[in-house]
Amino acid sequence: MSLSLNCLTEDDFKLKAKSICRQLLPSSSWKRASVDQIRCSRIKTGQSNRLYICELMSYDGVNNRQQIEFHDDGLLSPVTTTTTSISNQSSLITELKKSQVQNKVIVRFYGSEFTGEGNKYRSISDELECRILDHLSSKGRAPKVYATFEGGRIDEFLENATLATVDTLRSTPYLRSLANKIAQFHALQIELPDVDHYEVLNYFETQCIPEVDGHLNSNLSPGERELITEIRNFVNSDQLNFIFGKMDNLDQRKVCGHFDLNPTNILVLPSETPEGRPTMDTLLIDFENCQTGFRGLDLGKFFSELSVTENNYIAARANGTSSASQITPVSDAKIREFIRYYLTEWSTISDDFDSSIDNEINLFQEIKFNLMLSLLGFIYWNISNPDFLSKKLFNVTASRIILYKQFAKRWFS
């Protein structure tokens, strides 16, 4: 089943998602459902892939049902609608309850408008990602994969909200849960590509310097030219060697890394404490960028993106516009709090615990330097992106430069 992102409209994708569910899901309920009996809506929080929720609609005569609208800001809102009966829906849902496949699933098409058909930026194969998902889902740590097809797969739908919808992304319950889940993932014994991320950073730095000069020769507004000039001055300031020069004698641990720990790749799920009290748990998703690499770089990316996402969330809730100048770096205290939870979990599950490197002082240094490098990588990659001007990536690039300078002032001035 070949897909072309350039040829398919949004309606085409929805129709194809419905057809795939009817063909591939191992349930006669889905196979017997008509296209009109499946509701399909797009999830717009991610940018690497195109995701659609497909749901068998349940009716009982005239029935009020609650559907979920997915907005560009990642917030979820319930909408009540009234619908009339469809002849065989009741029997479909009754049968479905007896099977292992839900009446609501996620159809994932690899790639998007941003990453190209098939997601040209993914680090591992579709097959390896599915093996990782099978392993994690068997332990309750990831959604199940129901079926795969050329160019995508069908995943279990979990009633959840992304981390970006909680009131604060830095609260203790979430930090503790995240630290445990990330430590558990880092301890996995999976053969993954072993990437020299520092060599990649060097490459992107050399590529982006002439690129930013080329951008300045384009037709720009005065404000855009001023902003891109500031970006050029930053990339010409040799920040990469500045950070490398401070990392001498830093002991680092290589792990099974996620390397895309954006808050939109972390789900928040209802759970219970051992005492039966309601609480919230977290779950990692989207493993297409998994690699063997330094844990400090994996965690550094998480904390750098957390600083940006919280600002975006607060602005969205206030119906305002996110301002890069108002970005607040995650505090050292919060990073250290996370580290303590992480190391406690690591000490109980790792067969390779080493107190000389698995301690709060050393791991903080790992995160500190690699956080700066992850920001540089994001900046260099954006500048080298062919869509830097057309998609106005200079705005998010400038926000990362501001964040970099704030961390640099705190740690190195």
From TrEMBL:
Signal peptide: none annotated. Pfam families: Choline_kinase. One of its GO terms (biological process) is phosphatidylethanolamine biosynthetic process. SUPFAM superfamilies: Protein kinase-like (PK-like). The keyword Lipid biosynthesis applies. GO terms for cellular component: cytoplasm. Keywords: Lipid biosynthesis, Lipid metabolism, Phospholipid biosynthesis, Phospholipid metabolism. GO terms for molecular function: choline kinase activity; ethanolamine kinase activity. Transmembrane segments: none annotated. Belongs to the choline/ethanolamine kinase family. This is Aminoglycoside phosphotransferase domain-containing protein. It comes from Tetranychus urticae.
